[in-house]
Structures
1.
Amino acid sequence: MLPMLNQAVHIIKSGGVIIYPTETLYALGCNARDSIAVDRIFAIKDRPMSKPLPVIVGSWEQFLQLTEPDENVLRMVRIFWPGPLSVLVKIKGPLSSRVRDDAGWTSVRFTPHATAREICRLSGAPLVATSANQSGLPASARTADLDRQVGAAVDLVVDTPPFPGGGLPSTLIRVVSATVVQVLRPGAIPVSAFYERGIDVSPLPL
């Protein structure tokens, strides 16, 4: 195991907070089951507690430990995962209440990024995956552009390759049916990618 990867895994297991690369941007992360570490991320970002944090997993097994997806959700994620698609799912596993809303829903994606995936897998934990910036400020795909205050507040910045690809964050969807989704946040997967696969995009309710 690479020294920095080993260090990142140790920090996650010990309840710490890191900055790590994903397929799109650098992320702030911790064990999504650790409420104290999750609250620390809220403080670092100055993020309202009313906005649950998204989560990534590093394997199908981790995903199925978090939720009992219906066939429609499974069909959708099998098309796009691993990849920059975040999906709203109902959580069944023991996650911090700060990463799900009052009804138990949270945003999950199976990351294709090798480092992020290995940190999840080797730590045995789904990771919080929120952009490594203070709320309202730009996210970054380069360590040189990271907010110094945010970088100084974490236990480690994982700055080894592969580096984030940049561009838009993950696309966030709600699965309506086997062939219909709602796009809650446009992102790295364009709307055209759904139509190309025979999936309709429903407008959001007013």
Note: Residues 65 and 203 are 31 Å apart (CA to CA).
2.
Amino acid sequence: MGKVSKPLMKLGVTGGIGSGKTSVCRVFNILGIPVFSADPEAQQIMNSDESVIRGINNIAGRNLYPAGRLDRMQLAELVFHDPEVLQKVNALVHPAVFEHFSRWAGAQNTPYVIMEAAILFESGASNLVDRVATVYAPVEERIARVTRRNRLTREQVMDRIRNQMDDKTRIKKSDYVINNSENEMIIPVILKIHEDLLNHLNS
């Protein structure tokens, strides 16, 4: 009887590029909370779901799978310069990701689960979760993290930051805020959120 058959709550974890969402989710994972990462899931769907593959090629007007896998650079080039193409690709991929998330969440037996998504609000995924935690860090730290990790130039990282929702707007829409600056301790904040969710579930 002790085990919960279905997660009672869903927490969304979001933040801009380089904010450190993955590090935060790793801590939740150590606490026994399963994490669904929307971005890798979307990539997997774009490479394995036949109807999505057909849809992407139709939107692009050419084959973006020359080697059997999605040419992400070509797709990025297309969507970066044409908001309409981006909208069409999102309308194709997001519902598939949401469906995967709902199925996955239903199969867990923890008090709550996490959906980690960079564009949680923009994609509408925030409607699938009960509460949201935004992770943020100073822009210079984010740039340094991403240029180290992804070998992008400073300007390329700034382009991506400008293309995402700004921190102020994200924070306003969130229930929890995690400052992931290098000078801050994130573990006590995460433990507090974890405790708050469990208290809410037990009340």
Note: Residues 83-106 form the longest helix (24 residues).
3.
Amino acid sequence: MSLPAIVERLQQQANTSAFWSEGWSVAVVDLSRVCSLQQSVASQQAADRVRNIDPEDLVSIADVTLPPPSNIVLPAQLDEHRNNWIITAANPNLRITGHFGGELQPGVIGYGFTVAVLPSFLQVARHHGRYVLRDGYHRAYGLLARDITHAPAFVRDFGVGDLGAGAGLFTTGVYLGDRPPCLSDFLDDQVAADVDVPVVQKMVVVQGLELTPLA
């Protein structure tokens, strides 16, 4: 009964409404048979994301692959000299999510932006008849590294339509070939290699400037 409980929880989350309206469903997928659009993953970040999962508990796995809402505290620093707010996060889904302006209290007017770590769910798309991972690469890699092959994910058939994936990924000519790159290939020393790279953090900078333009 684990999967119905997971679906019920997701249906009650406001941040999943777009998925239901777009025709996504929830299923347990075999990650070892899913093709990869992405060419690299940060292995340490992946290990951290799945460290506390109970591999025998589908609900525990879903809490990472299809997470419930969380209150993430974002570290922010104020550079008073440059009038900058600097917000950082290890999660690349840190985004500017909105803006505001107007009277905050009598005699005080404020203008600014809202920031948040956007929700990210494991997404498997059926594209040209082949299953590919659309989002959730670090978690998928981390699960496979722990020999966890089956995980709940959002699944949708895109047919031959646009996947809406970002730039810099494998093209259809690669993942529709006779030997497509698979998620499990990240763990195969014959086709993958470990490379040391600097740790990257996402940063949002909100700056206030005082200007006196010429008339």
Note: The longest strand covers residues 94-105.
